[in-house]
Amino acid sequence: MIKIAVLGPIPRDTIITHQDEIIQKYGCVTHPTIALAKLLGNEGEVIPVSAIHKKDESDILELFKPYPNIHTDFVCSKHDKGTVIELRFIDQNNRIEKQTACMRPIVPDDLLALENIDAYIFVPITDFEISLSTLKYIKKEKKGMIIFDAHGPTTCMSIMGDRYRKFWVDMDEWLPHIDILKMNLEESQACWFKNEYEAAEMSHYNEEKTDHLDEMGAYILEQGVSYFYVTLDSRGCVVYYKENHTIKKEFIESILMTDVIDTTGCGDSFAGGLAYGFSIYGDAIKAAQYANALGALRTQGKTFDVFKDKVATNKLIDLHYKA
Q1: What pLDDT is stored for residue 216 in this prediction?
Q2: Is the pLDDT of residue 195 over 60?
Q3: What does the alpha-carbon distance between residue 245 and residue 111 come to, in Å, rounded to a whole number?
Q4: Taking Cα atoms as reference points, which of 223, 231, 221, 161 lies closest to residue 189?
Q5: Element (H, E) at 185
Q6: Residue 6 β-bridge partners
Q7: Do the Cβ atoms of 301 and 261 come closer than 8 Å?
Q8: pLDDT of residue 200
C-alpha cells in the first residue's frame, strides 16, 4: 500500500481567468491530493497536511469526503490560521497574485504521528509555509522521498498582501534535504545568480532563457538532490540526474491540450505526478510522463473532475508517449 503525504496550504482561492471568468475554490494541496487519490484507488492512501481557518474546515473536509483513500487527520484548524489568495490571470500562464491571509507554517511537531510515508510532496506557495527544520526532521527521523516545489521559497508577500517573485538566496541550505526538486523556468531564473550583474539579468523573466539550466542542474545535483525537474510551460519539462557519476539530461515533451480553461494548480498537480511515478515505477522518465499528464488534465476544467483514474490516465500517457 503506497502512502503519499502532501504538505502545504489549502488556500481559499478566487481566480479571475484570462477569459474574465471568476472561479472560487480551494487550491494548492487539493490538486495533487485528489489527483493522486483517483490514480491510486485502492492501491494507496493520500494524507494532506495543512493548517486552515476554522470557517473553511467543513467545506474542505466535504471536498475530500468522496475519496475514501484521502485521510484528513493532519488537516488542522486548531490555530485558525489559513491562506486566502486572489489570482488574476493576465494571459494563459501569467497572473497577478494577492494574499490576504497566511497559514501557520508546518513544523516538525505537526508530523510526529505521520508514519510509513513513501513520498512527501511539499507544495508551498509562499516562503514561510514550510520550515527548513521540517525537511531536516524527515531526513533524520522518517523514511520516504522528499519532493519539493520551489514556488514557495521564490515567492514573498508585502505587508499589503501583494505577492512577488524573490531570489531563493538560501537555496544551498535546503538542497541537501531534498531528493527531487521541481520548479518552473521563471523560478529557476530566481534561483541561479552568482553576482550582481546576473541578479539584475535574472530579475526580469525571460521565457526564452534556458542557457543557465545545464550549469544549474549540475550544481544542484552536487548538493545532494537526486533529480532536478524544470517545467518549460507548454513545451514540456527537462530532468537532470546522475547515472554512473555522469550527469544525464532528458527532455520530456508535454501532453498538449487544445482548450485550456484554467491553469491554476498545474505545478502542484505536476508534483503529484512525480510522486506517483517514482512511488510506483521508480523511474524518472515515467514520473515525468505522469507529471505532464496530471498537469495537462488540470487545465481542462474548473473542478477536480478533470482528474482521471489509473486506467484513463494510463491511456492518455500511452496515446501520447508510446510510438
Answers
A1: 95
A2: no
A3: 34
A4: 231
A5: helix 185-189
A6: 48, 121
A7: yes
A8: 55
Report residue 19 as a C-alpha cell.
477569459
Q: Which amino acid is at 228?
A: F
Grid look-up 493548517 returns 51
Mean pLDDT, residues 195-205 taken together:
56
Is 245 strand, coil or helix? coil
Mean pLDDT, residues 202-223: 86
Neighbours of 83 (CB within 10 A): 28
Q: How far is 211 from 208, CA to CA, in rounded Å?
A: 9
Q: Is the dihedral of CA 131, 269, 288, 49 positive or negative?
A: positive
Residue type, 153: P
Q: Using CA of residue 307, residue 309, residue 310, residue 316, what is the dihedral sign?
A: negative
Residue 205 phi/psi, 5° resolution? Answer: -65, 130
**Which residues partner with 87 through β-bridges?**
15, 97
pLDDT above 60 for 196: no
What pLDDT does residue 261 have? 82
| pLDDT one-digit tens code per residue, 153-177 | 999 999 999 998 899 999 999 999 9
Average pLDDT of the chain is: 92
Give the separation between CA 160 and CA 179, rounded to whole angstroms: 35
CB 1: neighbour CB atoms within 10 A? 10
Q: Which of 230, 180, 226 is nearest to 209 (CA)?
A: 230
